[in-house]
Amino acid sequence: MLRLWGRENSSNVMKVVWLLETLGLEYERIDAGGSFGGTDTPAYRAMNPLGLVPTLEDGAFSLCESNAILRYLCNAHAPHSSLYPTAPQPRGSVDRWLDFQHTALGPVQNPLFMALVRTPPAERDAASIERLTIASGRIWSLLDAQIALGGFVAGEAMSLADFALGPHAHRWFWFPLERPPTPHLHAWYIRLCAMAPYARHIAAIPVS
Ligand SMILES: N[C@@H](CCC(=O)N[C@@H](CS)C(=O)NCC(=O)O)C(=O)O
């Protein structure tokens, strides 16, 4: 059986759980990281050298990096799934947004999350929150225009790109902030919330 290491409130774990459940794959999830610890043992570091979550074990094989795990699950366990098309051009479009999540959104929304959620109110830096809010809003506005084209992140069909960005969209709409208008993005988020695994493993988990 597939084994997933990682706490349920990690956005990188959430995307993998959402995919596992969507594909109907049998798995067990083991709490690790954050207050659960367990990521600093030699055995865990052999699977995930940075000591982060998630890590996937599939028999004797292990894999870290959440977007690599998304790709692996489709390649190994759902090779015909339209979530990760095999033709080079649609696959390239999905890969592009998977990279975008880590390289464009992550550097602005992850520090915003730390500044707003993981920093006690008395210690919050309003100027940096404002700067990160504006920067994150620009990224979500780009995605709003992209989703306007086809309804999903990588076009007209749902794909791994939605799985990578969906958990972050929940945080963005949850943050007590002024956001730029993004009607297409918001409509997409509402559609994700209507999907049972997203509702259960992302929208229902307290942002913490
Ligand atoms: N690029 C990595 C980033 C993993 C990462 O930053 N994970 C965070 C949780 S979202 C983590 O492990 N934080 C430390 C912890 O939970 O102990 C991936 O996509 O898997």
Tell me about this structure:
The protein is built from eight helices and four strands. It has 208 residues and is an alpha+beta fold. It folds into two domains: 2-77, Glutaredoxin, CATH 3.40.30.10; 88-202, Glutathione S-transferase Yfyf (Class Pi), Chain A, domain 2, CATH 1.20.1050. Strands 2-1-3-4 form a four-stranded mixed β-sheet, with helices on one face. Helix 1 (11-23) links the parallel strand 1 and strand 2. It is globular and about 45 Å long. The mean pLDDT is 98. Bound molecules: glutathione. Residues 10-12, 33-34, 39, 52-54, 65-67 line the site of glutathione. Glutathione binds at residues 10-12, 33-34, 39, 52-54, 65-67.
Stretches where pLDDT is under 50 for at least 5 consecutive residues are none
* Order of SSEs: EHEHEEHHHHHH
Q: Which CATH-level-2 architecture of the largest domain?
A: Up-down Bundle
Helix fraction bin: 55-70%
Number of domains: 2
Q: Largest sheet at a glance?
A: 4 strands, mixed
End-to-end gap: 29 Å
Strand order of the largest sheet: 2-1-3-4
Which class best fits the helix and strand makeup? Answer: alpha+beta
Q: DSSP helix count?
A: 8
Return the CATH topology of the largest domain: Glutathione S-transferase Yfyf (Class Pi), Chain A, domain 2
Name the overall outline.
Answer: globular
Tell me the name of the CATH class of the largest domain. Answer: Mainly Alpha
Provide the gyration radius in Å: 17 Å
* Bound ligands, named by name, code or SMILES: glutathione
For the secondary structure, the number of strands is 4
